[in-house]
Amino acid sequence: MEDTTKSPNAKSPTTSTQPAAAKSGFAQPRVLVLRSPGANCDEETQYAFNLAGGNAERIHVNRVLENPAVLDEFQILCIPGGFSYGDDVSAGKILGSQLEYRLGDALQAFKQRDTLALGICNGFQVLLKSGLLTTEGESSPPGTLTWNTSGRYEDRWTRLRVAGETCVFLQGMQEMEFPIAHAEGRFLPRDRAKLDAMEAAGQLPLRYIARHGKPGDEVNYPDNPNGSVAEIAGVCDVTGRVFGLMPHPERFIDATQHPQWTRKFDSRDLDNFPPGDGLAIFENAVRYFA
Amino acid sequence: MLFEVDLYPRAGQPDRLAADVTFAARDLGIAENLQVAAARGFLLSGELSAADVDRATQLLLCDAVVEAPNIALPGDDVLQQPPQDSNAAQLFKDATPTLVNVLHKPGVMDPVAGSTAQALRDLGLVIEDVRTLRKYWISGVDESALEQLCRRVLANDAIEQVKIGPLQIDRLDIGQPYDFELVSVPIRNLSDDELMQLSRSGQLYLSLAEMQTIQQRFRELDREPTDIELESIAQTWSEHCSHKTLKGRIAYRDERAERNFQNMLKETIFATTQEIRRRLGKDDWCVSVFEDNAGVVKFDDQHHVTFKVETHNHPSALEPYGGANTGLGGVIRDTLGTGLGAKPVCSTDVFCFAPPDTPADQLPQGVLHPKRVMQGVVSGVRDYGNRMGIPTVNGAICFDPRYIGNPLVYCGNVGLLPHDMAFGEAAEGDLIVAVGGRTGRDGIHGATFSSAELTSESEELSGGAVQIGNAITEKMVADVVLQARDQGLFTAITDCGAGGFSSAVGEMGEKIGAEVNLEQAPLKYAGLSYTEIWISEAQERMVLAVPEENWAALAQLCASESVEATVIGRFVPSGKLTLRYEGETVGELDMQFLHDGRPPVVREAHYQPTTPDAVTFASPNGTDQTQTLLDILGSLNVASKECVIRQYDHEVQAGSVIKPLVGVADDGPGDAAVVRPVISSQRGIVIGCGINPHYGDFDTYDMAASAIDEAVRNCVAVGADPERIALLDNFCWGNTDRPEQLGSLVRAAIACQEVALELGCPFISGKDSLNNEFRYEDGDGNQQSIIIPPTLLISAIGQIADARRAVTMDLKQPESLLYLVGLTRNELGGSHYSLVTNGSGGIAPTVDAKAAHRTFARVHAAINAGLIRACHDLSEGGLAVAAAEMAFAGGCGAKLSLASVANNSADWEEAAIAHAETILLFSESNTRFLCEVRREHAAEFEQALAGVPHTLVGETQASLQVRIHGLRDGELKSEPDYDARLVIDANLPDLKAAWQSPLKW
């Protein structure tokens, strides 16, 4: 694989966050961060996986199309954020179709191997539109991600809560803050029955909550930044091993990425800059293979 | 077969396209009875059956949860009916709507169509071509309102066409085969008048002296030039490409002295950089200045950073979306084309518009409404930057009615460049390789057009100069270019910008010689002449010099990521530019004549300073200063730009550490951006800018000095090291053929020279855009001309050793102390106080550069020592605005006293008390900061600031108010006097609302 890019050196002297996953015992899972024309969060996503103790490589979708057996070498597939194929037609649609119609069998085989798949932002849109989040025996995806009710692309921070314990990536997590940056992130279930079924199966594990309010407060725009039904920020399959989310956990692995870090931390105490909330998602993925 | 697939919003789903139209129609005053429904559609041609198209729709085109498809042959009745199962059925139950189809004009870039065609082929369909369209069903407007709606809202003439009623179309193919015919242009026997006639009609926009030089040259050669030769010379000699005015001979005089420049820029701005580098000696941190596509400075032990800011004013005036889109796309290619290719890491944008509330009936003929310009420009920058995955982290928006015909669009980009990749040079024998997008008819004559004035007819004359970008193509190009760079596959790289291949190949081969086979260039469609291929400004193209032995590897790399790369020629040691089409020589020019043959431009420049009038104060006594503060916060230049900033991805690449919006609710106005370009390192770059066209109405020297001070102090305020700040200049001016226009520009350049030298901040790159004037005929048939105010943008790139020491402007906690650093003077000329009170007079803020240098160093030392919790620079609206912004951004109140401010002020003592208070509250004197300091750090802070003016002016408090106490008659205190009466008393929610409401779209 010519275009495999090695991990950035996480141990440069000025690094504030050290690899947090235990360096002991278990084998490092190999992570395939899927590049595509227009993917643009692949480098920071690779970095986050490596910081969490994984062994992540960025590989162009053309390599996988040429040789689907590439997937056999990996334990985790991650489709990063960006604008795959420009989001032309609709967000994630063209790459989703490629995965479904040209790599369908290979991806189903990958899924059967007790592997993990993560889609972030555009990657979530791709996962959904590729059928990887479609329940076995059903003919269509559980819903769609469509235009934000605000009608525009927005970049803002959101607060989230974890619902249920199905999702492998969210184990042990409760509340967190991540930024969103998208135009088409409003989750609409296919119908009411599907929504109820997903809720019952623990497939709606991540919800937007009020950023500055109390638990139980109504969640309005901009706390629910896109108008998603039931404040859905992420969806997993029934196994909890395939997970897509609109917010960007890879953009919050270091304290300084939080928009209010200058209010929380003191530059006179540089040892006291904790990692960001997002690192735990990547650590959970790595730990699954411990 | 040609099929049309329309996709309607399902019942209950928002009709976004229709909502946009209704919104825009409101500004035109024709929304009252307007009903609109809309759909998006595709035209698919190929060997297709109806079943194929159904399949394509189901698998790819339609999102069935939110959309309903409607498929038929174009022109079929079912495609004219507003869809029965959508919201539209209800909408038109009483009226038959008019159907308006909007399509791209043939040959205009349509990125969605291209990728849709490819995706459909991937599904096994035999597709020839795809086009996209939008459909609108409209009722409730008369014919003239409908015409207005079509022209101003639904479509832009420059790139789109409108078809009312059924779409009668049965094929999509465009382009006719091209029959080669060599065109020569008789020039040797033309009179001077005829030469100028040719210059205009050929859109060469060259001066008589230049035309005469060309004529003389071809008389010597004893032949007529070909069209491609004339075009090559015009491109290379254009103002846009050669900056001939500012690099020309200028005889300048102002009230102080006369100066005769041989090369104005070289002797002012470049000279300062050379002097700073000389002083730094072995500690010089500049790498490459004013020679490459961007300026380059040292960053860390492995990387340099690059910075370039471009203008894209003329295209944005005609087609705001496409103009701004390709403006950002172009400056990103400048980064990719610097050294052996830098990685783009963040972008900046600065815009100048006429006020968005300008009444539609006051627009001169031929200009777009400023609100539409603004929305188009913002969308264009948004879509390019977000798609490329480059965060837009810093910017500004200025408003002035004089930008009505010439909006200004500055786009900047910062790159990261490994140390050993800082320089490239094409070698003899290298192949000339075009990488990226195909060549089409877009953007013909952009370089020469942008060097001319706009008129009310420009829209028709130069529609071809408008380009539309395709960010994903450029992202793909960037991906392969950076890999090819790291594999050492090429020796030099540059971008195809203004002038297309003509400029790119001409520049790269300047010192060698080049042969180009124009028929080799891949085309978007047939029918381009050899000259069109050569000067097309089609986007997303880079030119690489590739040693023959590396060609196979480069071709394979590009193919592996579906990027097109084509050999179009070779660099040969001929000293000539040789152009061929299918074996026939169509042009041959000496490189030396092309690059050095232009006669020098010689200009006169005068500057006559105006005698300052006394400043007018709103009223001598009892002024409601709180209301004035609210008015300034709500003025367009100061008001929150959140509606714009939120649409930009300012966090992709995960390096944005100080974001454009800061504070307890992520909505306060940050001073400068801090970005960590290397994800594993805490070393940061700091990006700030300074621009204030209002000061230029008083004195362009002070305007330039103030812009530099502002750009630098923005960077210092967040923690940048003032010894490591580099500057960029972008001059946008009116027609500099007039001595007074050029005089005001030269005066600004002299200010840049003098102030930057004192500050030790080198200029590393710059660009100018002249002739920003708009000519039109008013209602009475009189010729009118609107000249933009002289507008200098200074962009600054600083560095911070550890981003964790950065500071934001939001107040952090109650019970802290507030210090004002710097001297307050009676400088209300061009201020926002004058703007909101309709005042005039006074003097514009000046810069004491020596004092500024000292002040920046001390403030930085205090930040670096962790002594400052919040720091905000004082700019538009002065102390009162800074205090209010810090308070509402932090959700923390503050009380201040003017008594001790007065103690650190100059020139105000003569004024009456009420006027003195106005000066202290609202003067926009430079080099000032308001700092929040913990009580326990007061002594350390004061020690750190020793030697520069600083004074305790207030404290933070838990109550959500900003209260500023005034002066007492005849009494000067050195400490805050909280018993004096209040001159400002406002609640934070009111202040914030005033600031947020004007541009909350």
Distance between the first and last residues' Cα of chain A: 26 Å
* General shape of chain B: globular
Low-confidence stretches of chain B: 459-463
Instruction: Look at the structure and give the mean pLDDT of chain B.
Output: 92
Helix content of chain B: 25-40%
Describe this structure in words.
The complex is a heterodimer of chains A (about 290) and B (about 1000). Chain A is of the alpha/beta class. Chain A is about 25% helix and about 20% strand. The two termini of chain A are about 25 Å apart. In chain B, helix 12 (about 320-335) runs parallel beside helix 13 (about 370-390). Chain B is an alpha+beta fold and about 1000 residues long. Chain B is globular and about 90 Å long. The longest helix of chain B is centred in the last third of the chain and has 21 residues, at about 740-760. Chain B is built from 32 helices and 40 strands. At the A-B interface, helix 1, helix 3, strand 5, strand 6 and helix 7 of A face helix 1, helix 2, helix 4, helix 13 and helix 16 of B.
